[in-house]
Amino acid sequence: MDFWSRCKRRLWLLGLGAGVALLCAGAARGEFTVIWQKAVMVCLECVGIG
Amino acid sequence: MQRVRTAVQVLFTIFTNGYVYGFLQGKVYRGALKYACVPGLNCYSCPGAVFSCPLGALQALLNRRGFQVPFAALGVLFVFGSLLGRAVCGWLCPFGLVQDLLHRLPFFKKERRLPLHRVLKYGKYAVLLLLVGAGSSLLLGTLVKVPAFCKYLCPSGTLFGAIPLLSANGQLRGQAGGLFLWKLGLLLAILLLSVKVFRPFCQYLCPLGAVYGLFNRFSLVQIHWERERCTSCGSCERACPMSLRVDEISRSPECIRCGRCADACPRKCLHFSPRSGTPKAAPEDT
């Protein structure tokens, strides 16, 4: 198996690494608090009221 | 494998919506687990939901003042997408489970796709760009941004959020109006269509499926096709509910990794395998 085929087969690792980096960046900016604040209130838009 | 898949779908739905007290009281769970997102479309306003919805999280971050890249929500989508691709849709999405169960009902002649499928399948990308992206980032004639997909389209929010909440909470029930009726009508139309057509919401409207579909080609979980052993009998193509050709299975953004092709193959040329591993060769038929 040549080098490029091996790289292609491991592209998911690059995606996973990028995902973890994005999660860390989001955590550093406090984005999980924004998500939590939205998720613990009844989302009026979701239930068709707001 | 289909029994295993249904069992996984049911158990995961129960696990992620296991806050029974919420259903009884008509209230949502407010604990720390809601910092985390589930991979599938699971409304965080479902009284039983113990985690957050990734699309709801994405829109909540886009709804902030100004424009900031929603790193955390993109991170969630990258992690689940890179590992599972659309296996999330086939195995872990509660709304996918509902559509699967409805499609098993013995009414109507079953269809795999709608007429104009070739055009309609791009609807989910339009929903992603227009409702989730632009609709949630821009001020649409109001002073505050709204999660446009959740507000105007999401049937999961109506089924798992609105109906149980409004049933148990009279105060909320009194506030329901035209928007709720619109969403209820849409939900009923999708559920009814699901009895006849395989997963119409996933095929044509789901923005989460659109995102995970982009990861299908290189995600860790794949359905491997042993081309050299294949006799081109067509069993897998006939079994595929998404009507994919054998060379499209797993790679196509439409493949939800349900595994029916693998079940149908008489020579077991198709099987689940991790992307980076060497597929295990099945013994040759004699």
Structure commentary:
The complex is a heterodimer of chains A (50) and B (286). Chain A has three helices and no strands. Chain A has 50 residues and is mostly helical. The model of chain A has no long low-confidence stretch (mean pLDDT 87). Chain B has a two-stranded antiparallel sheet. Residues 276-286 of chain B have low confidence and may be disordered. At the A-B interface, α2 and α3 of A face α3, α4, α10 and α12 of B.
Query: Biggest sheet of chain B: strands side by side, in what order?
Result: 1-2
Most extensive chain interface and residues per partner: A-B, 38 and 61 residues
Helix content of chain A: 55-70%
Mean pLDDT of chain A: 87
Q: Largest sheet of chain A at a glance?
A: none
Q: What is the overall number of helices of chain A? A: 3
Q: Could you spell the SSE succession of chain A in H and E letters?
A: HHH
What's the overall geometry of chain A? Answer: elongated
Q: What does the oligomeric state look like here?
A: heterodimer
> What is the CA-atom radius of gyration of chain A, in angstroms?
19 Å
What is the number of beta strands of chain A? 0
Number of strands of chain B: 2
Q: Categorize the overall geometry of chain B.
A: globular
The residue ranges of chain B in which pLDDT falls below 50 over 5 or more consecutive positions are 276-286
Global structural class of chain A: mainly alpha
Largest sheet composition of chain B: 2 strands, antiparallel
